[in-house]
């Protein structure tokens, strides 16, 4: 079991690229690369940090739906501070889905 986990994890290593080709379809599986906009200010002169990442994580479902209709809207701010923004985004997403999960079962109690 450990060997299967190690081989699977090795397949996710940085720089891996797998191309799956089917007639009239191409799926390219790659790992995320570096963000050249890290620590670069946006048009408003600001760099998104922990608080902005937290907010973007909390509203991620809403921005996802809006992005389907408006290509100018993105879920993730590329002009960010790096690890702190990522941490805020992750915490915001966890809080969002945690609240949704806990509130979803509140009205139904087992007897």
Brief rundown of the structure:
The protein has helices at residues 2-10, 50-58, 60-69, 83-104, and strands spanning 17-22, 25-30. By secondary structure, it is mainly alpha-helical.
What spatial order of strands do you see in the largest sheet? 1-2
Query: What does the average pLDDT come to?
Result: 79
- Note the gap between the termini: 40 Å
Strand content: 5-15%
- The helix tally amounts to 4
* Mass-distribution shape: extended
Q: What class, by secondary structure content?
A: mainly alpha
What are the low-pLDDT stretches, counting only 5+ consecutive residues below 50? none
Order of helices and strands: HEEHHH
Roughly how many Å is the radius of gyration?
19 Å
Biggest beta sheet summary? 2 strands, antiparallel
By DSSP, the count of extended strands is 2
Q: Portion of residues in helices?
A: 40-55%
Structure in words:
- The structure is a single chain.
- This protein is mainly alpha-helical and 111 residues long.
- The chain has a domain at 47-105.
- The protein is 45% helix and 11% strand.
- The protein has helices at residues 2-10, 50-58, 60-69, 83-104; strands at residues 17-22, 25-30.
- A two-stranded antiparallel ribbon has the order 1-2.
- Helix 2 packs parallel to helix 4.
- The mean pLDDT is 79.
Topology overview:
Layout lengths: L1 H9 L6 E6 L2 E6 L19 H9 L1 H10 L13 H22 L7
Antiparallel strand pairs: 1-2
């Amino acid at each position: 079991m450990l060997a299967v986990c190690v081989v699977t994890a090795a397949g996710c290593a940085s720089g891996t690229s797998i191309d799956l080709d089917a007639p009239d379809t191409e799926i390219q599986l790659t790992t995320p690369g570096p963000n050249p906009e890290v620590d670069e200010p946006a048009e408003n002169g600001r760099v998104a940090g922990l608080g902005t990442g937290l907010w973007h994580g909390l509203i991620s479902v809403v921005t996802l739906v809006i992005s389907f209709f408006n290509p100018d809207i993105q879920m993730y701010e590329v002009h960010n501070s790096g690890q702190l923004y990522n941490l805020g985004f992750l915490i915001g997403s966890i809080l969002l889905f945690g609240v949704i999960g806990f509130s979803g079962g509140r009205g139904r109690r087992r007897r």
